[in-house]
Amino acid sequence: MDMNEIKEIFFQECEEQLAELESGLLKLNDGDRDPETVNAVFRAVHSIKGGAGAFGLDDLVSFAHVFETTLDCVRSNRLEPNQDVLKVMLKSADVLADLTNAARDGGSVDGARSRQLIKELEALANGELPQPAAEAPAKSAPAPAKAAPAAIPAPAVNEEGFQPVAFSFEDFETSEPPTIEPSTFEILFRPKSELYGKGNDATLLLRDLSRLGEMSIHCDMDELPALGSMNPEAAYFAWKISLKTDKGEEAIRSVFEFAEWDCELEVTLAGGNHAGAGDELPMQPVPFDLSLLDEAMPALAGAAEDDEQVAARQREARDEAVSAASIASNVLQMAQTARASAENARSAAPASAAQAAAQQAAASAATPTIRVDLDRVDRLINLVGELVINQAMLSQSVIENDTNGTSSINMGLEELQQLTREIQDSVMAIRAQPVKPVFQRMSRIVREIADMTGKSVRLVTEGENTEVDKTVIDKLAEPLTHMIRNAVDHGLETPEKRVAAGKNPEGTVRLTAKHRSGRIVIELADDGAGINREKVRQKAIDNDLIAADANLSDEEIDNLIFHAGFSTADKISDISGRGVGMDVVKRSIQALGGRINIQSKPGQGSVFTMSLPLTLAVLDGMVVTVASQTLVVPLTAIVETLQPEASAIHSFGASQRLISIRNSFCPLVDVGRILNFRATQANPVEGVALLVESEGGGQRALMVDAIQGQRQVVIKSLEANYTHVPGIAAATILGDGRVALILDVDAIVAASRGQSLPEMSLAAAG
Amino acid sequence: MKKRVLTVDDSRTIRNMLLVTLNNAGFETIQAEDGVEGLEVLETANPDVIVTDINMPRLDGFGFIEGVRRNDRYRAIPILVLTTESDAEKKNRARQAGATGWIVKPFDPTKLIDAIERVTA
């Protein structure tokens, strides 16, 4: 994994954190005062800031920092998250999202807006604080430029111009430049027992110290009692160190950065002239250099002979020194272990209580998840699709060869079929995602449009956890956005008008998702004025959509808004008048295999209902025969099937025919004729009529030759594998291995209204 | 032998950065997403050093450090706190909870490795 991949992960995580942030803020807005909600909101911003800092995204960091500071005020109960405060915070969340997007895609952000919000956030943080948060304004100033890269551009600087970088000081928070002249420091280091208790180790500190220069060391063991009276919890050793270094006192102190509270530390300058003079110490110094333990003993250090024996003695002496050191460290370890058991006895009760609390916390946490590449899931889904087809083929050939249907192979196949179906459902469930992210995005849309239109709007969402295929979710955002804009812009009245109508000045937009008979139903309801039918009708007449004297039901008038290029607003506003009409919304929903309709009550508002398939991968279909071709009709489109009787068929005009069903007439559509499978219309009495519901609620009876059965089919895109065929939605492979086309019922119905489908290709049917 | 580092951080980004940095520096890395998981993982991980974040769901860094220090078997393990907070108050709280040292974010690989080297043998 490289940094770019991690950056990609960072932006993914940002998206999740932003969603978390927004949902948390909305909860607070609804009066939720759970500290965990505030914490989650804080953490989201904090996390974004942390990652952004690592990637040097300065704009993002500085905004997140101010936001975080204000949120910290809320977290510590210094700022009450009332509606006004939350309004600023929700806007800040939007800006944070913009900044994140800009950081990812390189776009620009509304600098004025973010500066304004920084001011507002700071005002909130300062206004309620006992002492003004001095830190916030200081750090929040827009970063002047990206942090300069560590390396100085090569061409500009020659060798003499090169500035040495004291890299070993990078982790020390000091600005003091290292002294150039080496000087000798006397250091007294006396650890307290807490030093060991926090996992620090005197040996390691001494090691680090030795790296600063030339060091001699003496261990003061005066306080070490007899073993019998030794307290394993205590620290008995102290060290007197003489260190000759050119790094300065600050460097010495920073070695003890983590330990300074838990030890006595004295650092005094002995004077540069006495460099290396160990004998100035009151006690005999031991030269200490971990990397060169050969000089462990002063006597041996002085020995200049390279006599073999001396060398051997040196090694022996070193071994002794090492073993002495290891004994010392053993004592330390013993001390720690003994203290541990003592402490353990003391803290046993609270520890187990804490463990219980931890377990409880674990139990209440979300179920564990793993992240999987979408490609892998899709591959699995494809394979399962193949498996389903294969299983169906196997079943079919067994049935053909086993007419009585009682053999064990037949029974096994039934179980296989059931298993396959379960596997398929489970795999589909992997792709299923809650609609929550899309719904959450809508609340921002509502806020923005409410601001632009000066309307007061409340968005209520229900069923956010309703799950649907990820593809459906991804493609839902755009039509939904447009509908929400419409609902606020056209649906809701201005606060004044609402008050005049005796309504709450704040309008409500309700977004609901639920499962209904194998589909997801999304409803968007507003409590606005409802469709102005007079106006819609007039507009339709003006636009030549309908005849001036057309006799339309209320429902039909309402559905006119789905016609291309229709806009009811007198003046095309900036919000919903971007040339995108409800017809586009309708088309996107249809492209997902969905339906949309509207119900409106004057003065009470409108409800848009969208019904979408849960998945785009499989479909329950009715397998039918038309002119010896096998076709699949989506089951969801079919209302009922019937065998027409001759008396029920009525001719109408040149070629139109109607069928009378329970005293109402319904146009009869010969699928074979529409698809150009045959040149003349078939005799309805010889076939079967499928009563289907099309957009706008109108019914048609589709004539097919025969029904073969009903089954779940795996959808194979025609566009991806061949080309778009009018009147055909997709293809599938049947149990016998043949390709069957899936009928696009709406296209067939539309075609039946007038012209036949253009450029039909029979070759596609296999 | 490779030194083993247990990292505890709720941010996937930071987790990945830690993983890459530590692996590149020749450490063996074990990761947990929050304090609760950290304490669970500790039981089997047997790390030489722990690096933990402060702000985490379920159990924050302070609680996690206290949990480690309360545990007989693991309380001598050095713990480094990795946090954007550079203010003395946070450091102090972490120290009181039993942190060995700290690394101030923004994340810097050199700082991280330096700090780990400082507290491990």
Automatic annotation (TrEMBL), chain A:
Residue span, CheW-like domain: 618-754
EC class: transferase
Occurrences of domain HPt (ranges): 1-103
BP-aspect Gene Ontology terms: chemotaxis
E.C. designation(s): 2.7.13.3
GO MF term list: ATP binding; phosphorelay sensor kinase activity
Gene3D superfamilies xrefs: Histidine kinase CheA-like, homodimeric domain, Histidine kinase-like ATPase, C-terminal domain, HPT domain, SH3 Domains
Modification type Phosphohistidine: residues: H46
Keyword 4Fe-4S set for record: no
Entry keyword NAD: no
SUPFAM superfamilies: ATPase domain of HSP90 chaperone/DNA topoisomerase II/histidine kinase, CheW-like, Histidine-containing phosphotransfer domain, HPT domain, Homodimeric domain of signal transducing histidine kinase
Histidine kinase domain: residues covered: 414-616
Chemical reaction(s) catalysed: ATP + protein L-histidine = ADP + protein N-phospho-L-histidine
GO cellular component: cytoplasm
Keywords associated with the record: ATP-binding, Chemotaxis, Kinase, Nucleotide-binding, Phosphoprotein, Transferase, Two-component regulatory system
One Pfam family of this chain: CheW
PANTHER family: CHEMOTAXIS PROTEIN CHEA, SENSOR HISTIDINE KINASE CHEA
Functional note: Involved in the transmission of sensory signals from the chemoreceptors to the flagellar motors. CheA is autophosphorylated; it can transfer its phosphate group to either CheB or CheY.
Name under which the protein is recorded: Chemotaxis protein CheA
Species: Sinorhizobium glycinis
UniProtKB/TrEMBL annotation, chain B:
Domain Response regulatory residues, every copy: 4-120
Residues annotated with 4-aspartylphosphate modification: D53
SUPFAM superfamilies for this protein: CheY-like
GO BP terms, alphabetized: phosphorelay signal transduction system
Keyword Transmembrane: no
Organism this protein belongs to: Sinorhizobium glycinis
Name of the featured protein: Fis family transcriptional regulator
InterPro entries xrefs: Bact_response_regulator, CheY-like_superfamily, Sig_transdc_resp-reg_receiver
Xref: Gene3D superfamilies: 3.40.50.2300
Top-level taxon of the source organism: Bacteria
Pfam family, one: Response_reg
Keywords, ordered alphabetically: Phosphoprotein
Database matches in PANTHER family: CHEMOTAXIS TWO-COMPONENT RESPONSE REGULATOR, STRESS RESPONSE REGULATOR PROTEIN 1
